[in-house]
Input
Amino acid sequence: MAALLLKGGIEYNPGGGLALTLGGGYDYRKASSESETMNRVRIRSTLEIWYAMLGAHYALSAGTDISLLISGGYVKTEARLEQESLYSLDLDSTLIILDTGIAVTTRY
Output
């Protein structure tokens, strides 16, 4: 199995209890396996994910924050299953994700 994972982000604090965040990443995985039986079965697959997140965080008071988050991503998977001399199967899938959220955090 081979894998590559890259991720990072930045935070900017302009003052007044406000923080802006931006982050993202990339994840790639490739795997393969083969059975040792008489009718050999081979499976090969890849997974690729791109994602990004954007956030705004504001301190309402010393113990209470409010946050707004937006995230999105692109997920692509490919797989191939082969059984020697009998059949093969190809699977491809692409998914686009968009998600938002709001949170209020209180410390005690």
About this structure: Residues 2-106 form one domain. The chain has one domain: 2-106. The chain has no helices and five strands. The chain has a mean pLDDT of 92.
